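Justification of computing resources. Each target in the renewal requires a structure prediction run like the one illustrated here; the chain below, 89 residues long, is used simply to show the kind of job we budget for.
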Amino acid sequence: MKEKLEKELIDGISLVEMSSYREKVLVDLKEKIKTPSRIAKSTNIGASHVSTALKELREHKLVVCLKPEKKQGRIYKITELGEKVLKYI
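Resulting C-alpha coordinates:
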Protein backbone atom coordinates (compact mmCIF):
# COMPACT_ATOMS: atom_id res chain seq x y z
CA MET A 1 0.00 0.00 0.00
CA LYS A 2 2.78 2.43 0.91
CA GLU A 3 4.54 1.68 -2.40
CA LYS A 4 1.34 2.46 -4.34
CA LEU A 5 0.87 5.74 -2.47
CA GLU A 6 4.45 6.69 -3.23
CA LYS A 7 3.88 6.03 -6.93
CA GLU A 8 0.63 8.06 -6.90
CA LEU A 9 2.41 10.89 -5.10
CA ILE A 10 5.33 10.88 -7.53
CA ASP A 11 2.98 10.72 -10.53
CA GLY A 12 0.95 13.61 -9.10
CA ILE A 13 4.02 15.76 -8.50
CA SER A 14 5.21 15.09 -12.04
CA LEU A 15 1.80 15.91 -13.53
CA VAL A 16 1.52 19.22 -11.67
CA GLU A 17 5.14 20.22 -12.33
CA MET A 18 4.57 19.87 -16.09
CA SER A 19 1.83 22.51 -16.23
CA SER A 20 1.56 25.93 -14.64
CA TYR A 21 -2.21 25.76 -15.23
CA ARG A 22 -2.57 22.56 -13.21
CA GLU A 23 -0.39 24.02 -10.47
CA LYS A 24 -2.40 27.25 -10.27
CA VAL A 25 -5.72 25.37 -10.21
CA LEU A 26 -4.50 23.02 -7.46
CA VAL A 27 -3.14 25.91 -5.37
CA ASP A 28 -6.40 27.82 -5.85
CA LEU A 29 -8.44 24.85 -4.61
CA LYS A 30 -6.32 24.64 -1.48
CA GLU A 31 -8.06 27.78 -0.24
CA LYS A 32 -11.63 26.52 -0.60
CA ILE A 33 -14.14 24.54 -2.67
CA LYS A 34 -14.84 26.30 -5.99
CA THR A 35 -16.57 26.09 -9.33
CA PRO A 36 -14.50 26.13 -12.53
CA SER A 37 -15.67 29.67 -13.34
CA ARG A 38 -14.48 30.93 -9.94
CA ILE A 39 -11.16 29.19 -10.43
CA ALA A 40 -10.80 30.82 -13.86
CA LYS A 41 -11.57 34.23 -12.40
CA SER A 42 -9.21 33.97 -9.43
CA THR A 43 -6.31 32.49 -11.42
CA ASN A 44 -6.75 34.52 -14.63
CA ILE A 45 -6.76 31.29 -16.64
CA GLY A 46 -9.24 30.75 -19.46
CA ALA A 47 -12.23 28.55 -18.66
CA SER A 48 -11.26 25.90 -21.24
CA HIS A 49 -7.76 25.59 -19.72
CA VAL A 50 -9.27 25.33 -16.23
CA SER A 51 -11.63 22.56 -17.41
CA THR A 52 -8.76 20.63 -18.97
CA ALA A 53 -6.61 21.05 -15.86
CA LEU A 54 -9.46 19.89 -13.60
CA LYS A 55 -10.06 16.83 -15.78
CA GLU A 56 -6.37 15.86 -15.60
CA LEU A 57 -6.15 16.55 -11.86
CA ARG A 58 -9.32 14.51 -11.28
CA GLU A 59 -7.96 11.57 -13.32
CA HIS A 60 -4.91 11.52 -11.03
CA LYS A 61 -7.04 11.79 -7.87
CA LEU A 62 -5.66 15.21 -6.92
CA VAL A 63 -9.09 16.85 -6.96
CA VAL A 64 -12.62 15.53 -6.69
CA CYS A 65 -15.86 16.81 -8.18
CA LEU A 66 -18.50 17.00 -5.47
CA LYS A 67 -21.46 17.18 -7.88
CA PRO A 68 -20.39 15.16 -10.95
CA GLU A 69 -23.99 14.62 -12.12
CA LYS A 70 -24.51 18.34 -12.67
CA LYS A 71 -23.66 19.89 -16.04
CA GLN A 72 -23.33 23.40 -14.60
CA GLY A 73 -22.31 24.53 -11.15
CA ARG A 74 -19.97 21.63 -10.48
CA ILE A 75 -17.81 22.21 -7.43
CA TYR A 76 -14.33 20.87 -6.90
CA LYS A 77 -12.25 20.13 -3.85
CA ILE A 78 -8.59 19.21 -3.42
CA THR A 79 -7.97 15.67 -2.14
CA GLU A 80 -5.57 14.52 0.54
CA LEU A 81 -3.23 13.35 -2.22
CA GLY A 82 -3.51 16.78 -3.87
CA GLU A 83 -2.54 18.42 -0.57
CA LYS A 84 0.50 16.13 -0.32
CA VAL A 85 1.55 17.01 -3.87
CA LEU A 86 1.42 20.72 -3.02
CA LYS A 87 3.86 20.17 -0.16
CA TYR A 88 6.46 18.96 -2.66
CA ILE A 89 6.13 21.63 -5.34
